[in-house]
Amino acid sequence: MQAANPRRGYxxxxxxxxxxxLFPIYFKAISAVPAIEIIIHRVLWSALFGSIVxxxxxxxxxxxDLRNNPQRLAVLALSGSLIAANWIVYVWAVNNGRMxxxxxxxxxxxxxxxxxxxxxxGERLRRLQWLAVVLAATGVAQQVWQVGSLPWVxxxxxxxxGFYGLIRKKAPVAALPxxxxxTWMLVPLALIWLALNPMALSAxxxxxxxxxxxxxxxxxxxxxxxxxxxxxxxxHLPFTTLGFLQYLAPTLVLLLAVLxxxxxxxxxxxxxxxxxxxxxAIYSIDIWLNMRRRS
Length: 295
Prior knowledge:
By secondary structure, this protein is an all-alpha fold. The chain has one domain (6-294). The chain is built from 14 helices and no strands. The chain starts with 5 loop residues before the first helix and ends with a helix.
């Protein structure tokens, strides 16, 4: 087994989260294509490029394990549906001026995972974890009170990703083979959608002579590169360290939204973010204290 190299791990981890944080630039470049159509092609090109990568980056035994445990295929079908839903909401949010809500959703994600662990896995929350969850709930509640509507993007993103993580625990397949299987299981649905929508932008022959076609085909490598970086980083860094690095992605989305795409950061939104950030700070302190007690 390759010895852990923390420096390499940090570079790979930061690269993965930086790419995920800069995703909006890519989706803005193909904003003329509807979100559902972008995801259709993300599925198709990810399945293709993922299969090519798997030919060179070996994961011994993954297919044998799936063949011997066919119930895992059903689990991966469900997890694939959840990640596709997550992708659709995220792309729609980016291309409809809702990047701040998307950023907030991914800040909430760790706290949603804690809550799901308590509700569905019977895990007990420590006092500081309870406080962190309450602060996050307060932030969402004040947004509902001020704006008068539920910030559904900020809730759907962490919930779909949270349930995705829970379900993937039931099918212990490595990240890359898991994504490839998930996308291939969605390929028939993607092809059916294209067949039923002959007027779709990408169904027109002339579309494939434009630069937009190249951007759309890039959905495969754009999806896979950060995943490969993350998968490699996980071999060199503790999972808790990767957990702290994850805040880079929503921070970059937040900065892009405000500084480059002119989304308005209202007082209500600032208060919501402040509550979430306070909850995350307490959550991080709890993790640090728990690690010290164990060491």
